[in-house]
Amino acid sequence: MAEEEKQPRLDADDCVTPFQVETLDVRGRVVRLGSVLDGVLAHHTYPAAVKRLIGEAVVLATLLGSSLKFEGRFILQTHTDGPVDMLVVDFVTPDKIRAYARFDREAVEAAVLANAAGPAALLGKGHLAMTIDQGLSVNRYQGVVALTGEGLEEAAHEYFRQSEQIPTRVRLAVGEELQAGGGSSWRAGGLLAQFLPAEAGRAAQADFHPGDAPEGTELHQVDDDEAWAEAQALAGTIEDVELVDKTLTSDRLLFRLFHERGVRVFEPQLLKAQCSCSRERVAGVLKSFTREEQKEMVQDDGRITVTCEFCGRTYGFAAEEVFDQLDS
User: Fold this and answer.
1) Residue 306 forms beta bridges with which residues?
2) Which end of the chain is more exposed for a tag (fewer CB within 10 A), N or C?
């Protein structure tokens, strides 16, 4: 059985589980989402294809954000030319997740009818930004990578090649589970494995493509370290159904993958769907607008209403209440 630092939970859902394969110099995390993903999706009327895409984005943001060792947030955001032109996932350490998508409903429906509504197709082309925010006292760090129509998995690989220069393998999976009495729930899972040997030279990767180099230019090639090649091959055997199977716990999944090499499974971190909006936060945002901008927000009933795009909660303010804020 997998070697454990502490006894993991027996259920498979709503947690991120770190692991280490010392013999392969590999570290990583497994994410499993059940009710948390349903909680993220609950306040919106997303089509099923959009829910699947959001599920992938939430898993990726959790895999990356859960590595932060400080209080802060990890924000994953896309801007693309596809039917879903914007995705935002906000992961607040150590365990809070929220997300939303902006999409063209007619374009999504047309893509579904054309059997072209996979996550990569819905995104299209554009860019993916990943931001680490430690608060007001520290500058934000942001990495940006192109989305070229190949989806979030490939974008994550490209990000680690360019920005982190760490050999990394990512797997993402999302599934819809139909209920006996009608309706459905959503599940998602993912794995991130990274090659982190003590000898830096073993993690060398090929140089970036030379772009407009003259024809015939020989590209720089670097063979993968044998240990990393083996780890990638093992990670590549994971089936989507294994990542979303609620009867298969993370430690059992990792044992399936790495039992011949030995895998150490650490204590899982529980996750929850929770929005960080509040009446006080919204009031603070309204205060940042000028008096003229605030007046334009006033509705016929003399109130200003703000709806959180993440959780759908609505906050109402009397116009005088907001104007008094600006004057104080």
Assistant:
1) 315
2) C
Cis peptide bond prior to 94, omega within 30° of 0: yes
Q: Is 297 left (phi over 0), alpha (psi -120 to 50) or beta?
A: alpha
Interval 252-282: pLDDT, tens: 999 999 999 999 999 999 999 999 999 999 9
* Angstrom distance (rounded) from CA 263 to CA 251: 9
Would you give the DSSP letter of residue 230? H
Tokens linked to 112:
């579904």
Stronger pLDDT, 321 or 227, i.e. the higher one: 227
- SS3 label, residue 280: helix
Contacts for 201 with CB less than 8 Å, ≥ 6 apart:
none
- Burial label, 28 (beta-carbon count in 10 A; 0-12, 13-18, 19+): buried
Q: How far is CA 129 from CA 89, 135, 201, 288, 319, in A?
A: 11, 18, 29, 25, 36
Cα–Cα distance between 23 and 101 in angstroms, integer? Answer: 41
Sign of the CA dihedral with 311 first, then 313, 318, and 321 last: negative
CA distances (Å), 239 to each of 173, 183, 246, in order? 9, 25, 14
Q: Are strands 269-270 and 272-273 parallel, antiparallel or unpaired?
A: unpaired
Pairing label, strands 15-21, 264-265: antiparallel
Average pLDDT over residues 3-24: 75
- CB 173 within 8 Å of CB 243: yes
* Nearest-angstrom CA–CA distance, 302 and 280: 20
What the block records as the tokens of 215 is 């024809």
pTM recorded for the entire structure = 0.87
Q: How many helices (H) and strands (E) does the chain have?
A: 11, 15
Complete DSSP assignment for 111-146: HHHTT--SHHHHH-EEEEEEEEE--TTS--EEEEEE
